[in-house]
Structures are given as structure tokens and as C-alpha cells.
Amino acid sequence: MSTIGASPAVVAARLFRGFADPTRVAILQVLLDGERRVADLVELVGSSQSNVSGHLACLKECGLVLDRPGERRQVFYRLSGPEVEELLRAAERLLAANGNAIELCRNPMMDGGCCDG
User: Fold this and answer.
1) Distance CA 76, CA 67 (A)
2) What's the burial of 52, exposed, middle or buried (CB within 10 Å: 0-12/13-18/19+)?
3) For the chain, how many structural domains are there in total?
4) Is 116 exposed, middle or buried (0-12, 13-18, 19+ CB in 10 A)?
5) Is 94 helix (H, G, I), strand (E, B) or coil?
6) Measured between alpha carbons, how far apart are the two ends of the chain, in Å?
7) pTM of the predicted model over 0.85
8) Is the residue at 3 inside a domain?
9) Cα 87 from Cα 93, distance rounded (Å)
10) Considering the domain boundaries, does residue 12 fall inside one?
11) Other residues' Cβ atoms within 10 Å of the Cβ of residue 113
């Protein structure tokens, strides 16, 4: 893990902040099925174009998605690699096992604290 001066824990926390927003997670989940245009993501995620674009910029800057130009000013996005898919699939398995406990957690660090994005 390249840290460029930051501790591995700090870098890992920054990575997980990329997954800490429901819209970003929804975008990543849609991209599990393959490359999509921004317009498709807007429709599938159910958010505005500016909101989806902002989240895509965050995900791209963090190295979680890649883009490519299409025709007529369209931009296509995809997951940046198999590691992102593996992490999302592992999260699905973890939620299948512990999702109820996570949803019911009332730890103040989870609500309005570090884990709400």
C-alpha cells in the first residue's frame, strides 16, 4: 500500500470514505453490472445529473472508477479494477451476515459521527 507519508490506517480510512455515501455506493453497485453512461447512472440511481457527476468525480479521484469518452459528449464509467468489485462483493457478504446488527447499531460514532459520510 503506497501511503506517501500517511499511515496505512489513514489511507485505508480515506478509501472507506469513498464508500461512505449512499449515492456513491449505489453508483458502484450499478457499475458491478458493467460500464454505464452518466445519463444511465442518473436514471438508475435516482439522483440529479449534477449530484451523480460530483460523486463520480470523487470516485474517479479516489481511483475507484475510470471513465472514457463516448460519442456526442457522453462519458462512460466503469469500476477501476477487479479489486473494487471484490471489495463490493465482500461487503455484500458481510451485510448478508451482519446487516441487521449494522442497521440497528446505535453507537454514537455511527450516527452523525464518523460513519455517516
Assistant:
1) 5
2) buried
3) 1
4) exposed
5) helix
6) 23
7) no
8) no
9) 10
10) yes
11) 9
